[in-house]
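Lab notebook, bench 4. We co-purified these components, and the gel suggests they stay together. Before we commit to crystallization screens, I want a quick structural picture of the whole thing.
Request: model the full complex, all chains together.
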Amino acid sequence: MYIIGENIHIISPSVKDAVAGRDIKFFQDLAVKQVEAGADVLDLNIGPQKKAGHEIMPWLVQGVQEVVDVPLSLDTTNLTAIEEGLKVAKSQCIINSTSAEEERLEKVPPLAKQYGAKIIALTMGKGGIPVGAEERVNIALEKLIPRAMELDIPMEDLLIDPLVLTVSGCQEYCPECVEAVRILKVAGDPPPMTNVGLSNVSNAVPREMRPLINRTYCVMLMAAGVDYAIVDPLDEDLKEFIRIVNERDEGTGVGKLLVALYDKTAAMDRLTADDVDLGDPEQAEIFKTVQILYNDIIYTDSYLRV
Amino acid sequence: MPTIEVPKEKWSGKVREITLGATAADGGTRAKTVTVGGETTLPYLHFEGDIPHPPAIAIEVQDRKPADWSPVLLEAWGDVTEDPAAWAKAAEEAGADVVMLRFSLHDDLSAEYARETLRVVLDATGLPLIVFGPGQAELDNDLLVPVAEEGKGEKLVLGVCEDKNYRTIVAAALAHGHLVDARCPMDVNLSKQLNILISDMNLPLERVVMDPTTGALGYGMEYGYSVMERLRLAALQGDGMTQQPMLVTPGEEAWRAKEARTEEGVPEAWGDWAERAVNWETLTASALVESGADILVLRHPESVKRVRAMIDALMSN
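Here is the predicted assembly.
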């Protein structure tokens, strides 16, 4: 799984200030920090920037690629900004993103074709985001993949994003998103790539509880076969979970549990209490988190205490 | 004919059994108590599990003649609406299992007034009582604390507890042996969270009913229905913090709806007002019975009869 670093995001007040003040040093530092921490790609979310986007994006792309040598993900709804960024990029970019809405689908993918970029395509049409995995996959099969094929965009450059939603309020979507990834990875030969915005799973969750939910869900998505994840590469605990799964490190109780979670999810099976040493508080917390992500136990802000 | 085996689900969880009211033997003065809950299956799937108690019907009685009630309701009850004791008695005669005493919002509310009103209602009926304040946090607390003291040992249901205002009411219930109504605005996560917060204060879950709020027919009830369904499924799947019996207020919800409230400015095709209004309350309540309600608070005596007939039919097979 490739890690797309999410920390250059307009929602962060310091990023917003640095965009407004055109402080390229700030972005260069943040870029270096993320790449040193293991980011394979950097997301550049500048917000809609209707007025100045066409200046901001190329300025940011040029500034960031002076200090790091990784692909960049150009994240804005402003198409002109994306195109100006693509023009100055030194390596293959990712366009983030198109939906399955007609207007977006008409305009965004041709840019990917023209500049040889990868493109993230959301399984979201006019009717919003369906709950069920199959309905989400259908949007990919009926709209997103045909459009890419029509333009001759190779499947390795099409990153289908089945949309992670929060466990706090959209809990029924959580297991379905894992299933959507799984089905997408067997849809077609070759199948498309898949991408998720991991931290969405813990939106509206108290801040101190978010990382555990993020990293537990990450293991489940990896097991389903996700190719790219937009995450915080500075989250050491998350990276430790990813390492354990990648190396199948069963040297600790938590390691055994995570490998079991990975293997069972990959086999379309479910983790049960028998897989867990409930006497180990860390394992117990992971298991409780898995239960809310399965949508077995109703999420509440107190779920770890019950 | 081939025989078809009906598939059965084996649920691991069970809704808590909760008893409202206390007789002299248990330190109260009620002539009878009412027990709800205990289900081990989805509503009325008798072939699959137990539905040990029918849902209870409570009739809403207010401390004084309601200023904002439909004339259809006021006419149905007649003069008793002037006197909460007489009204409570009439409610018992109309077939209530439980009486809900609700304080309306007016200038004469005080601790002493609350005590006196509760006392005359307790004296007038032998049924268990639910007592709701006017629905303003501070005022509810000011009234329900003296109510809890005055009704010590009666196992009243005090309401409403909400996530922003539950501590005082829960403390009063703890101190004086009552139950509480835990209300959330059609939200599965918050409903569970509030049960957790209340149980954190050491009130046993055997003394908590949850009130998911529902909306009325035509006003979002399908959403309320889904929330109740989700909570009940979680309860049966073994989620211990959702296993509370559910109290719903279809009377209040339905009589707020335009279809029940007004005669003016509605299409003629809507038909007779009184009949339509009672239908609105009855149909709202019926849907909630089907979604697992354990206590239904109703307003019109005719709705009570019709909902009772439905419950009897559902329980008889």
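Chain B has a mean pLDDT of 96. Worth comparing against the SEC data before the next meeting. The domain at 18-315 of chain B is CATH 3.20.20.20 (TIM Barrel).
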